[in-house]
């Protein structure tokens, strides 16, 4: 799979979230022949075959009668959103509630009489959809993380180069190696357990509160953080707490998980100030410089500071009409939020823009800076737990993978699933990047780094000497 790096990472984490109580749902939206199906197939290739179910279409009642199939902690992939229009209600319910129950009339095989029969489908299920439609069921869309495929000419050129290279000897070699990489990651996914994930930082304001729809976006954001933590469960201490006589195992979120989720959220939900008119952009940057200075002087958080149009007119020397027009644009684009105290009251504003993306990068305003997080447990916020409570030695693909943290050999690739020295997302091994569909990918030291690279860790840290690969977060 050429390009689409962030889409692949988001999709991979979403598919991994099938192990959570409330998995993410993904919808890939693009024009026909843009590569949405290829993206879905590339992601699913790294999930165990027995943990995914794929259909081209579903009838309106089909999901309710799947009680005989085990859907719990699996991926339900539908090739086209058009194929589930009849079953959209059941899909939305299954994604939201994690289960389906229907009462229907049927014949009792013993008595021959008609009676009420109950059918139950147990989740949770991660739902994966693709669509070419522009107008999609809004309720379904709100429940999904929407990925859009890169459709520019440079991406088309890269795809064609990959298609041509696929006909060469180099392409043949890469194709064979792809299968072993996919098998490695499928085995790694099989080792993941549906542990609980505890986020000690969740009480802090991590996300925007400016619009009602942010309530559902907030849940997606928190689940994305959980998925990152769950993927690193063999690099965390598995803790146990007794609740009502039952032992519950869980792992904890660290700031690095939030940092990765922030960077992915910037791409999925963020905007670029390049979308703004030049004058509107100039006003935004002037406002940010002014208000940040005031916050420092008054020792306030930016979210606590309020200002009025009159204040901006006096400090920035903008005209009343121009200021009103550009502030309205910034409010529409969610760079500021207006707070009204009622009829006849002066409207005050809050600046959401935090200064990131001044050069036009995609950013989602209002996300908390992980470096400012305070840990209520008073531990070192950057400490990466690597102790495994219950060491397990698994026999995997003919090699022993030591889950207690030893550097061992898995499937002949020398990958550490122990949690100390390898990233299950493929951040630092020679097969990192995981989505090696390009003939030029999947080769040692040529793969793109994974989630860790998004968190700005040094690339190829393990290329020199025979040192152990760096510990991923």
Quick rundown:
The protein is α/β, with parallel strands linked by helices and 473 residues long. It has helices spanning 5-16, 36-44, 88-97, 138-142, 153-165, 169-190, 214-231, 255-269, 278-298, 309-316, 320-332, 451-454, and strands spanning 26-29, 52-55, 74-78, 99-107, 114-122, 125-131, 145-148, 196-198, 239-243, 246-252, 336-339, 348-351, 393-396, 399-402.
In words, what does this structure look like?
There is one protein chain. By secondary structure, this protein is α/β, with parallel strands linked by helices. Among the domains are: 5-165, Rossmann fold, CATH 3.40.50.300; 273-351, Orthogonal Bundle (Arc Repressor Mutant, subunit A), CATH 1.10.10. The chain is 32% helix and 15% strand. The chain is built from 12 helices and 14 strands. It has helices at 5-16, 36-44, 88-97, 138-142, 153-165, 169-190, 214-231, 255-269, 278-298, 309-316, 320-332, 451-454; strands at residues 26-29, 52-55, 74-78, 99-107, 114-122, 125-131, 145-148, 196-198, 239-243, 246-252, 336-339, 348-351, 393-396, 399-402. The strands form 5 sheets. A 5-stranded parallel beta sheet has the order 2-3-6-1-7, with helices on both faces. A 3-stranded mixed beta sheet has the order 8-10-9. Strands 4-5 form a two-stranded antiparallel sheet. Strand 13 and strand 14 form a beta hairpin. Helix 1 packs across helix 2 (36-44) and helix 9 crosses helix 11. The longest helix has 22 residues, at 169-190. It is globular and about 85 Å long. The chain starts with a helix and ends in a 19-residue tail after the last helix. The model is unreliable at 381-473 (pLDDT under 50).
